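*** Query protein ***
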Amino acid sequence: MSLTTIALTAAGSALGALLRFELGRWIGRWLGTRLPWATFTVNLLGCFLAGGLLAGSAELSPGVHTLLAAGVLGGFTTVSAFALEVHLLIRRGYELGAAVYLLASLLVMLLATIAGYRLVA
């Protein structure tokens, strides 16, 4: 991995994380924090942007794509990468694999969260 790729990814990640933090605070003030509206909105927006990035990626240089995909979107939300992977599996004709990956990921991630909580609590 080149130093340029590392720098673009790091800079984009920092920007994405700051955007997520500020958007989360704004949504929390606007809609409240009783339900996780901020996380929901960030993930929804991240998935929308990932889809747009995928559709327009042929027009971007590799550096800009790295900055936006791995960097900004990676720092903003990783669920966008997850949704993009499921979408790509479907587009490639692996519908069953996409369904298994989707359901298994959700279940395993929830179980890992519960296990981590119980280990520390």
